[in-house]
Amino acid sequence: MPEGHSVHRIARQFARNFVGLPVHASSPQGRFAEGAAVLEGREMLQAMAVGKQMFLEFEGDTWLRVHLGLYGAWDFAGEILVDPTIASANGRMGQTNQRGTDLDGVILDDAGENSLTSIGAPRKTRVHVRMSEQTKGLADEDAEWPPPVVGQVRLRLLTDATCADLRGPTACALQTPDEMLATVAKLGPDPLVGDPAEGEERFVRIVRRKPTAIALLLMDQSVVSGIGNVYRAEMLFRARLNPHTPGRDVPEEVVRQLWRDWVRLLAIGVETGQMMTMDDLSPEQYRAAMASRDDRHWVYRRAGLPCRVCGTEIALEELGARKLYWCPFCQR
DNA sequence: GAACTATGCGGAA
DNA sequence: TCCGCCTAGTTCA
Fold this sequence. Notes:
This is DNA-(apurinic or apyrimidinic site) lyase. Its EC number is 4.2.99.18. By secondary structure, the chain is an alpha+beta fold. It has 2 domains: 4-182, Alpha-Beta Barrel (N-terminal domain of MutM-like DNA repair proteins); 188-326, Orthogonal Bundle (Helicase, Ruva Protein, domain 3). Helix content is 27%, strand content 19%. Strands 1, 5, 6, 9, 10 and 11 form a 6-stranded mixed sheet that branches. It has a 4-stranded antiparallel sheet with strand order 2-3-4-12. Helix 1 crosses helix 7 (252-272) and helix 4 crosses helix 7. It is globular and about 55 Å long. It starts with a helix and ends in a 6-residue tail after the last strand. The structure holds a DNA duplex.
């Protein structure tokens, strides 16, 4: 259940390992057989993310649009080049386990080394990672190649060195360039696409016009791209903003603050692979919070627990068919 | 092994 | 507003 940061990480992984290379495409599960046949053998030209959508461009004016939805995930295997601007390379990206762990793939351990752990890679037996020369000592020479297909793989993309398996997406479809542009045009600004200052103006203009609760606006992908249920709850708490405040009643400066917070959280998320929303804690506080992976947020999934700031019980309500967590005192 | 849950979203009613 | 999609980890029996 990835929010925007995961999708950007996945796009970057494709940029490093697939772009510029011919790709074998198949649909082991069969549900994307026609599309895979179209892509088979074509060179991947570009990989980009806009909000929660990812677009892969192939030779012949053909785009692949993928939306992971609630359950989707990409599993990478084989050679996985490490983006130096990104703290970790990966096994599994997108899906996470049910304990609230929101980590993509490999993490940095205390020593600052890349280490393969099961965190965020709940089915690590399926992830045969042969790291690039930029990492060390993680060669898996005995891994079968290409990796055996396990489970429902909608789409497998394969180069000589790297394999990417897509499972459970909400959307996986081919698009013409016009269709791709039309999809993007419907999306609100993404801090990592285009000029973030322009994005801020668009965001402010829309929010300040709407009578809709700010908690709903933040989740509306036509208002702002990439925010999901976790970032929504956390951002509203960080702004100490009542989730029910109509967009047009949120002071302009607070709207701008929300956008800038999203810019910051997304950057941290893409860099670390974690939905780090408590970055302003002291190191000691942060260590304590991280000690329990189930409890690393201000309010998300903390219903009934005391607010970390004021001790009030965190509230849980349904809003727009999603669970909304907030502190009735801090966000009054 | 069944039931439950999830970071999403489109379409029917 | 509700339902269905579609996957897999976790929890509980």
